[in-house]
Write a structure and sequence with these properties.
Distance between the termini: 24 Å
Number of helices: 11
Radius of gyration: 18 Å
Structural class: mainly alpha
Largest sheet: none
Order of helices and strands: HHHHHHHHHHH
Shape: globular
Strand content: under 5%
Length: 258
């Protein structure tokens, strides 16, 4: 990839990092951009997973104060996240570039729909006032929660956009109500599944390292800048823009594969 395209990658990653800090959904900007700049969709997906891992680690650190007393949920999430992330990465490595190019428009569309539904979903997750002790009664048994989390982690290891929204929904089903604690626990699960997926992609040579490093730098810078702007920018406008980008990316990727 040329120097000019790497600069564009940095700018796209910075925009994605800022959007993630303000409203979430930055992958719906970065992934179509690096595909448009010439990366094979499967390589772009693996590269994006590796590039976003440092940002996941920094987000996890940012929520460290909210994780006090959440050790039980961290323990519950760790194993299914690692196992599911490994399975998802294995499935991606077993998917040919041609097959992934046929699938990816619908993955982007699904992630866009999830992102669009995030607001109503979060209102349902928060639900009525919590019971004594700060949590509602779990709506699903713990064993089913493990299965659900493993399934979400498989999706996260395979593609990833929207996985965080699904994890928040799971935690709401388990009775958690503090959104900051939920975000912290969700970030831990994302850290686990992306770690095993990124390791698998790196060891199997499907990562474009110059692009990954450029994305990591841009994402870190954009995340910091976005956090500074988060209180000044209307989230609803940003969310509408991200949904529009996601839908346009779906159409473009669908036409591109023909």
């Amino acid at each position: 990839m040329t120097a000019l395209r790497l600069v564009l990658v940095v700018l796209a990653a910075a925009a994605g990092g800022a959007v993630n800090a303000i409203a979430g959904g930055g992958t719906l900007i970065t992934f179509p951009t690096i595909v448009a700049l010439g990366l094979d969709p499967r390589i772009a997906n693996a590269t994006s997973t590796v590039a976003l891992w440092p940002g996941s680690a920094s987000s996890m650190w940012g929520y460290r104060d909210e994780l006090r007393g959440a050790g039980r949920w961290i323990r519950h999430l760790t194993l299914p996240s690692l196992v599911g992330g490994a399975i998802g990465a294995w499935l991606l490595l077993r998917t040919s570039s041609a097959a992934f190019a046929r699938i990816v428009p619908f993955l982007v569309l699904g992630a866009t729909v999830l992102f669009f539904a995030q607001g109503p979903l979060m209102r349902r997750i928060r639900g009525p006032a919590p019971l004594e002790g700060g949590a509602r009664v779990p709506l699903v048994p713990l064993g089913l929660f493990y299965v659900l989390q493993c399934g979400v982690a498989v999706y996260g290891g395979y593609f990833g956009a929207g996985a965080g929204i699904l994890m928040l929904a799971e935690l709401g089903l388990m009775g958690l109500t503090n959104i900051h604690t939920m975000n912290g626990v969700k970030n831990w699960a994302g850290l686990c599944l992306n770690f095993v997926a990124a390791t698998a992609f790196a060891l199997n040579g499907v990562v474009d390292w110059p692009v990954a490093l450029a994305m990591a730098a841009g994402g870190l810078a954009g995340g910091y800048g976005g956090s500074r702007l988060a209180q000044r920018v209307g989230q609803q406008r940003v969310r509408h823009a991200v949904v529009a980008v996601g839908l346009l990316a779906f159409v473009w990727l669908l036409l591109r594969r023909k």
